[in-house]
Amino acid sequence: MHNEAIERLTACGIKPSAQRISIMEYLLKHRTHPTVDMIYNDLVPTMPTLSRTTIYNTLKLLEEHNAIIELRIDKKTAHYDGDTLPHSHFQCKSCGKIIDVQMQGLLNEQYETEFVIEETEINYRGYCKSCLEKAKKTNN
Amino acid sequence: MHNEAIERLTACGIKPSAQRISIMEYLLKHRTHPTVDMIYNDLVPTMPTLSRTTIYNTLKLLEEHNAIIELRIDKKTAHYDGDTLPHSHFQCKSCGKIIDVQMQGLLNEQYETEFVIEETEINYRGYCKSCLEKAKKTNN
DNA sequence: TCTAATTTTGTAATGATTTCAAATCAGTAA
DNA sequence: TTACTGATTTGAAATCATTACAAAATTAGA
Known about the structure:
2 domains; homodimer; Arc Repressor Mutant, subunit A; about 140 residues; alpha+beta; two-stranded antiparallel ribbon; Dna Ligase, domain 1; DNA-binding
């Protein structure tokens, strides 16, 4: 797990520091879609100088380099996922748990037994035509 | 538009007050996926006593009664949509604009000319099996 | 009109995230 | 080893969207 973390970091072009390895390793080991605070509370005991800011900074860095995915399914706080392969998520409005949904496209009845869905949200992010054109003019 | 707002409110079981009508009407008229602040700034001139808190309260009420949809595509703030029919959204990471994507399921090349997609996120929200079972036991 | 319930309002509190400058660390050349 | 440079980490303070709350205003019914 430790080596996998280092491999993932270097493969994504990130210099593997002790903190970055710890956080990457945590996300590879725990498929619970943790928040910053969960990661912090679990790592501080073995890394007492660790700062919350470092976790924020590192997660942003990892996300920008596509080493992890930032989930915005929770309306309050960001959650993070070490699984970068395309898949969807379900969050229970009562207990807050986030569950992986290994299916592209819309859900079928197979899942109706596992949970009751009240909201479906499909979000795309990227760059719009006019911003791409503006960037072209400025950069060339 | 005024009457449509009242109709939507009553159809969703919401008593139509002046403020609620204004906000509902605004969301029916402006398909720009506004934030609380956009709604506030646009409505205050004609409704000087309007409070931001009322907008927060009203939007939550409207959403709970399925009169509108709350969008969480923007990582900073909530946006709101008066169009409750199922559709997806795209947000430009540069200008922040949110664009409707009238397509269920994953995007095809048709959209590649309109924008470049970097992230795809499919979120479901509802209730998980164990929470549903807990609720059953408590309520019966 | 009087009263009770509902709705609205403004202020203060909350809490996640960001900013920022100082401290620490890692790597390199002398 | 030592000194230097740049990268990384850290903690405190600031920011900003949202919520809590209690008072004020409005509405509806008797």
